[in-house]
Amino acid sequence: MTTTQKALAEFIGTLALIFIGAGSICADKLTGGGVGLVGIALAHGLTIAVMVSAIGHISGGHINPAVTFGALAAKKISPREAAVYWLAQLAGGVVGAGLLGVAFDDATREAVHWGAPALAGHLWAPVGGMLVEAVLTFFLVFVVFATAIDDRGAFKAVAGFAIGMVITFDILAGGPLTGAAMNPARAFGPALLAGFWANHWVYWVGPLLGGLLAGLLYSEAFLRRR
User: 160 to each of 47, 89, 224, how far by Cα in Å?
Assistant: First the structure.
């Protein structure tokens, strides 16, 4: 596949995640809580499961700058290609959030900051939020390596399902704490459209740190012992 094809796949995958994921938060507000935490978790998890399965053979199905960062740290992607992925993912996040303007009225979108994640008041914020995002993303990227990047793993046939399930259980546990973005593009697109930048750095530093640690750990502990 060409770099352009890979970038387009990452753009579409990330667009879908933000439109459906952030859209589920807007829908929850519109319906007075009718979607709920489980519904929001499934909206994100199922979107990732389907899109990773759909584009995995094209780009690897990263759909997340933190996953790309972990792959870069493990030397599974070149710096140039990683930069292209990041640009495509961020662009997809912005366009996905922008499309929410077609689906929801201004009041609904603005009430939830276009679906942008936010820290819970009881957290030791913002450091606590950063650590939560780092841990959640560590689990995600570890599973990405184990099922999609490691060529011994199953499991490539079911990688999308496994990765989607991690997203789901991470949101069930971390959603009430940080919004469980685990993805700078997931946070950036809605934040840009809403102009909502409170603790935004948490959603970059936490996921990138978690992705880096997972990529390095899996690479050193499992990939180099063949």
Answer: 10, 18, 24
